[in-house]
C-alpha cells in the first residue's frame, strides 16, 4: 500500500517541562518513571509546548534535548507518563502556539502539487501554524491537544492534529512499584515517550515539497483519522507495556476535520508496545518492540479487506553530560506485510522493510548536528518497487536553548540537506530530488 508523505512529517504534539517543588506523591511518580531531580533539573535541559513551562515553572531544557522539542530527556518522559499533571501550583494559561516558515531548493524542478507552489524556488511563508490546549486537568488527568493550519495543504486548511488525553496513577505491590495510565489519542504511537516510533521519530521538521520518503508504514498514516484507547504501565522504572485498539472516525468527522488521516480502518486495529529501559549515570538505554494489525477496505477492486501487519524493533541510547554535551542515537526497523483481498484475483501480497537510524549531538543545548540514514526495501502497492535510501544532514541553532529572560518562548533555526541514492527502485534521477531546506520554528 503506497502512502506518499514528507519524509520528516512534523510530529506536532505535546512535550513538556517539570517543576522541582512538587508534592511528594507526584515526586514518587517521577522517580518511578526514571528521572532524578539531581540529574534532570540541574543537568538536562514536541514540539516544545510552552504551556507546560508555565504549568511547571521550568525552562525548556528540563524536558527536551537541545532545549526544544520534540526529543525528550528522562525528565520529560517522566512528565508525560505521569499524565502532564505536575505543576508548581501557580495559575497559568493552558494555551500555546507554534509557527514554522521555511525555504526549500531542490536539485531539479519539482512538479507543483498545490496552488502557489513554484517549481524550484518555493518559499513557504507559513508551512505550519498550530495552537495547543495543553495542561493539567485534575490531579491525575492531563492533555495535549493540537490544531494545525497548513498553507501547503491543498486546499490550505485548519485541521485536527495530534491529541493525547491521559490518566495516570502510581501503584505498589510489595517491592514492585510502578505507574499505570490510560491514553485516549488520535494517532498510534503518539502516546509513546521515545523518539524512535513513527509519531515522534526524526526528522522533526521537513520540507513540504522535496521528494520525501515515498512509503511509510500504515500505522504512521492513521494520525487524526482514528481514535483509540491504550492502557500502559511502567514497572520498577524499567519495563514498559502498552496495549489498546484504534477505530476509524466517521466520514463526516473526517470531512469536518479536512480529510484527517490517510486510511479508514475496518473494525478495530489492535496496537501493542513493549520495551525495557535503564539509566546508568549519564547514560540511558532503551530497546523494545511495537506492532499493529490493521484491516482496510481493499485497493484491489475486490469486495473484501486487505490486512496489514506492522511489526518493529527499536533502540535508543542517550548521553547527557550536564548542560555541556548531549548525544542521542535512535533506531527503528519495521516490516510491513500486506495481504490483499483475492476476490478480484490480483497480486496476493507485499512486504516492505524500513530502517531509520539517526544520531545527534548538542552542545550547551544550543548548537546541534544530526545525521540520519534511511533505507526501504521490498515491494508495495501490488508489487511496486519500494527501494529508497539516502542520508539527511542537519545543523540547528536554538539561541535560547539553555535559558532566556522569558523561558516560555523558544525558537529553532535549522538547515537540512537530504541526499538520495535510490528513489522508488531506481538510482537514475534520484539525486534530482536532493533538497536544501531552511526553516524557522517558533513556539510561544
Describe the structure.
- By secondary structure, the protein is mostly beta strands.
- The protein has helices at residues 24-32, 37-43, 50-56, 74-81, 251-256; strands at residues 95-106, 123-136, 141-150, 157-173, 176-185, 226-235, 239-248, 268-280, 283-297, 305-321, 325-339, 349-363, 367-380, 384-385, 388-397, 410-422, 435-443.
- The radius of gyration is 21 Å and the shape is globular.
- The two termini are 38 Å apart.
Number of helices: 5
What's the helix-strand series?
A: HHHHEEEEEEEHEEEEEEEEEE
Number of strands: 17
| Unreliable residue runs | 1-46
| Radius of gyration (Å) | 21 Å
CATH topology-level name: Porin
Q: What is the assigned CATH homologous superfamily?
A: Porin
CATH class: Mainly Beta
Q: Strand order, main sheet: write it out.
A: 1-2-3-4-5-6-7-8-9-10-11-12-13-15-16-17
Mean pLDDT: 83
Largest beta-sheet details: 16 strands, antiparallel, barrel
Known CATH architecture: Beta Barrel
Strand content: over 45%
Helix/strand-derived category reads mainly beta
Count of spatially separate domains: 1
Described by the principal axes of the CA atoms, the overall outline is globular
Percent helix among the residues? under 10%
Amino acid at each position: 500500500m503506497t502512502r506518499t508523505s514528507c519524509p520528516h512529517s512534523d510530529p506536532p504534539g505535546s512535550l513538556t517541562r517539570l517543576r522541582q517543588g512538587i508534592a511528594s506523591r507526584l515526586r514518587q511518580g517521577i522517580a518511578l518513571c526514571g528521572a532524578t531531580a539531581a540529574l534532570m533539573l540541574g543537568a538536562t535541559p514536541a514540539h516544545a509546548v510552552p504551556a507546560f513551562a508555565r504549568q511547571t515553572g521550568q525552562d525548556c531544557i528540563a524536558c527536551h534535548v537541545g532545549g526544544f522539542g520534540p526529543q525528550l530527556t528522562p525528565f520529560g518522559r517522566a512528565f508525560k507518563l505521569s499524565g502532564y499533571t505536575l505543576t508548581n501550583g501557580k495559575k497559568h494559561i493552558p494555551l500555546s502556539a507554534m509557527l514554522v516558515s521555511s525555504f526549500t531548493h531542490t536539485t531539479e524542478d519539482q512538479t507543483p502539487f498545490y496552488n502557489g507552489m513554484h517549481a524550484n524556488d518555493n518559499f513557504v511563508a507559513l508551512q505550519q501554524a498550530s495552537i495547543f490546549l495543553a495542561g493539567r486537568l485534575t490531579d491525575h488527568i492531563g492533555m495535549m491537544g493540537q490544531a494545525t493550519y497548513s498553507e501547503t495543504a491543498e486546499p490550505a486548511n485548519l485541521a485536527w492534529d495530534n491529541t493525547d488525553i491521559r490518566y495516570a496513577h502510581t501503584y505498589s505491590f510489595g517491592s514492585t512499584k510502578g505507574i499505570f495510565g490510560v491514553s485516549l489519542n488520535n494517532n498510534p504511537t503518539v502516546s509513546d515517550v521515545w523518539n524512535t516510533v513513527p509519531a515522534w521519530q526524526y526528522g522533526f521538521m521537513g520540507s513540504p515539497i522535496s521528494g520525501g520518503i515515498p512509503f511509510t508504514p500504515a500505522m504512521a498514516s492513521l494520525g487524526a483519522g482514528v481514535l483509540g484507547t491504550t492502557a500502559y504501565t511502567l514497572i520498577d522504572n524499567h519495563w514498559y507495556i502498552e496495549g489498546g485498539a484504534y477505530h476509524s472516525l466517521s466520514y463526516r468527522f473526517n470531512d469536518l476535520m479536512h480529510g484527517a488521516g490517510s486510511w479508514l480502518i475496518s473494525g478495530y486495529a489492535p496496537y501493542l508496545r513493549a520495551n525495557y529501559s535503564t539509566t546508568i549515570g549519564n547514560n540511558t538505554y532503551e530497546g523494545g518492540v511495537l506492532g499493529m494489525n490493521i484491516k482496510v477496505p481493499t485497493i484491489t477492486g475486490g469486495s473484501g479487506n486487505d490486512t496489514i501487519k506492522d511489526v518493529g524493533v527499536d533502540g535508543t541510547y542517550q548521553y547527557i553530560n550536564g548542560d555541556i554535551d548531549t548525544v542521542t542515537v535512535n533506531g527503528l526497523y519495521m516490516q510491513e506485510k500486506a495481504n490483499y483481498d483475492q476476490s478480484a484475483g490480483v497480486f496476493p501480497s507485499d512486504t516492505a522493510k524500513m530502517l531509520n537510524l539517526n544520531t545527534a549531538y548538542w552542545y550547551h543545548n544550543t548548537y546541534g548536528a544530526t545525521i540520519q540514514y534511511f533505507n526501504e526495501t521490498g515491494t508495495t502497492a501490488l508489487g511496486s518497487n519500494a527501494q529508497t535510501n539516502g542520508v539527511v544532514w542537519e545543523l540547528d541553532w536554538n539561541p535560547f536553548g539553555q535559558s532566556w529572560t522569558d523561558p516560555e518562548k523558544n525558537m529553532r533555526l535549522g538547515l537540512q540537506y537530504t541526499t538520495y541514492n535510490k528513489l522508488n527502485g531506481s538510482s537514475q534521477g534520484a539525486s534530482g530530488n536532493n533538497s536544501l531546506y531552511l526553516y524557522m520554528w517558533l513556539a510561544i
